[in-house]
Task: structure prediction
Amino acid sequence: MKRLRHYKDTRGEGEMFRRRALAGFGLILLGLGVLVGRYVFLQVLHHDEYALRSVSNSVKPRAIPPARGLIYDRNGVLLADNVPAFRLEVRPDQVQHMNQMLAELGRVVPLDQDDLDAFRKQLRQSRRFDSVPLKMRLTEDDIARFAVNRWRFPGVDVVPYLTRYYPMGSLFADVVGYVSRIDADDLTKLDPDRYKGTTHIGRTGLERSYEDMLHGTPGYELDEVNADGQIQRVLETHPPIPGKNLYLSIDARVQKAAQDAFQGRPGAAVAIDPRNGQVLAMVSVPTYDPNLFVNGISTADYKALLNAPDKPLLNRALASAYPPGSTVKPFMGLAGLEDGVRTPEDTVFSNGVFYIPGQSRGYRDDQRYGAGTVNLYKAIYASVNTYFYKLALDLGIDRISEFMSAYGFGRPTGVDVPGEVSGVVPSRAWKAKHSPKERTWYPGETVITGIGQGYWEVTAMQLAHALATFAGRGVPYAPRVVMSTADVGKPSSPLLNPPTGPSLIKNMKDWEAVNEGMQLVIYSNDPLSTGYGHNLGGGFPYRLAGKSGTAERFSRTTNAYNEDRNTAYLAARHRAWFEVFTPAENPRIAVAVVLEAGAWGAEDSGPIARKILDAWLTTQGGAVPPDTPLPESAVAASSSAQNSPNAPEDLPQSDAPAPDSSSGGDATP
Amino acid sequence: MMIDTLRIRFHRFFRRLWTRPRIDLPLAFALLVLCGVGLVTLYSAGDSNLSLVIGQAARFVLGALFILVMSRIPPSALRNWTPWLYIGSVMLLLVVAVLGEGRGADRWLNLGIMRFQPSELMKLTMPMMVAWYLHPRQLPPRWKDIVVVGVMIGIPAALIAHQPDLGTALLVSAAGGFALFLSGMAWWRIGLLLAGAAGMVPIAWHFMHQYQRDRILTMLNPESDPLGNGWHIIQSQIAVGSGGIFGKGFEQSTQSRLDFLPEHTTDFIFAVFCEEFGLIGVCAILVLYAFIIGRCLWIAMEAKDTYSRLLAGAIGMSFFVYVFVNGGMVAGLLPVVGVPMPMVSYGGTSAVSLLVGFGVLMSIHANRKVHD
Result:
């Protein structure tokens, strides 16, 4: 009988509950019955087997952590090594009174507050029967003193381990990075089986991005133990598989020259091989010693690094984006040619100030009274703003941002060192997103975009990448620091890095024209040339092609001409850039340099770039690594079209010229 | 004046805890025996370390005090506070999600003097909330009520599972689910929901942490992982199986003494019990657990109103989940999940929170129906 119930049937509910409770109890008894069944299976049916296993159970597995892969430069110079060291470990379940024990132990082996804090933190996170490291890198003295007192500290042991050591100190801090002790956050993310017995993990740089390759696979041994748990003998060993070794494309000598060239002035430099995207140098100045971090940096050291005014922990090559200034002009010029709004011979007249039609605000040239009639070549070598103001207006912001994005500006380049920032390519979309109050795009913003000012933000890595893409005849490669990897005892195998797309250049004539303009920056004997008088190409056997950039750090506030030419004053106001590639006809290296405080691009950053090129040239005399074949488009376009008598023929890779062999290459008047 | 009255009431309340305890004697006695068995097992599993036993006994005493206090709070008062207690527990879970600390899993809240696991509180407030919601409604529940209850269970369960603490999430949802089951939800609806849940398994698998998947895979093939959970499972089964019918005897567990069995005072302590007391001991302790659960359900049947019935029944039935999951894990029947064996596993919060639940049962018993 079905009936509608509009009221609560309390008595009926009681009865229903009784039935449900009984049914529930029935199910529970069933569940307990299943359990009993399983216990009968184990304790009665298979009792003999398990009894036997229990009696003969004297074998315990012990994890053996793998040795971390080593890191070398391109010639096999060791950059990250494993060195034997000793540490103190504590087994919590064998210590009765932890605090008392630590206090007593502290009188034998000095324990500082950092050690104790890290230990307590890890103690809370680990199981009672897992050893917890207390103090890393014991000195011989520590070991000796502990050995004498060892009987007082059951559960505390000196354990040998391999620790990371960076023999080059700070030279590769911003590339290789460092490892540090595994902490609470890591433990939640890591596969506990893969990291059993491992105490360190890659924290920054390649150590972090290649963690999976460097770490390796732990092995284990089966130990026969006695009733006290002491190992009697090792029954079986499944050795760990060490991590893979990494070989960088960077040559330590070039890296050193690059770092030294800054003479401590804050800045960054990146060099890339345009033929394959291999990074040849990457420095950030100032920097720090990664060895400090490996076994836990002391609070005092860390604070000092963190609070230093010139921010040594900042990776300026990847994580600092600056307005690129005039270094974008070659790309602007190329955009004008490729989009068909200019030919190289088209001219504009520069009289010192440029006005958007119908507007009163003036946009200035570097030369107060202008550079006169200017074609593409002169616009590049004399860095004539008016040419690019007008070109930017003719192209429009949308075409500019699309073109620049294609060269990798405004997004991470994808280099295999972590920590890259995106930078900014000015565009309507970017402005709408980042200044919601003032979303309209003004023509004046397009104008200054044309000379690398305004919203622009570019990292040294991005500029080097874009320049390398251009120099490699438009074939884009993601920058790569790691060239090849090798299993221990095996020959190395290269990491493939195919181009990320087809050539960006539609017409090689455009490439040649811009290239020519960039060569004139170095070699023109027009006093208006930004490179004039700096002799940047002097004595270099290959033809250079470059461009300076001097970006304003502050906006102009008055219409008055600033006559202050004091270098220190300008350095405080300017970021000095220089970009250069060589050999101009068939480029093999592209360099971008930024000085955070430099007066002029060519004068201050140019010599740094040249020193990097000099060091690179020297290394070409040594063992040259096998070339990856050039992509079709780059091979097809031969260098014969370029009529540059001063440049020597591109030499075969195996025999390199002596740096001074070709003094005829000096085109400076 | 008013303060004085309050003080007198307060004093009377506490005096009556001793002078007129409102205790169901069979249940109290069964719990006492269970705690005794637990302490004896712990003494052996903890390598005859008395300090471990004393610490655990202190928790039991604290729990007993909670039983006395809770037994004097009438279910009607508890019912009035229920929504606030529930909301408070969810808030605490949110706080833990934001700034908790713990062994990798963020489930603790540091209160300065003690650390506290809000998910333990949820084990009690969850069935209270479901019972509170169903109490005034027409039973058996229809889809609408079932959906509402589902949300009540789902939010805290998801927060706890996210910590990640699958074991507690399971216990909390089971407590809520049992209240729904006991409210008379139609069998076909239950069937449909279970079928739906089975369909969700692949999706749940997708959202699991890798280590959680590994635990399940390891259970199916323990030999594949000799260093991790596979080792736990193998050693635990050796302990259980080698105990045989009569066991090796008190303090004779070689698996635990020689340190082959990991976590042998906490999650895997029942394996030590099995090894030392054998199948006979297993059956005896399971009968004891069954008696406690049965007594809880009997108290629930005798209860005065729907709220008390559902709450008492759900507390009793979730007690079973502890036993089944831990017992199944130790015997290699279920994957390794952090669910303790009630009153036997060493560890503070779960023992105390279980005893608080029994305090609620005592109160429900004291306020039972009056038979004419």
Remarks:
- Chain A has three domains: 55-77+168-247, 83-163, 252-665.
- Residues 1-5, 622-669 of chain A have pLDDT under 50 and may be disordered.
- The two ends of chain A are 113 Å apart (CA to CA).
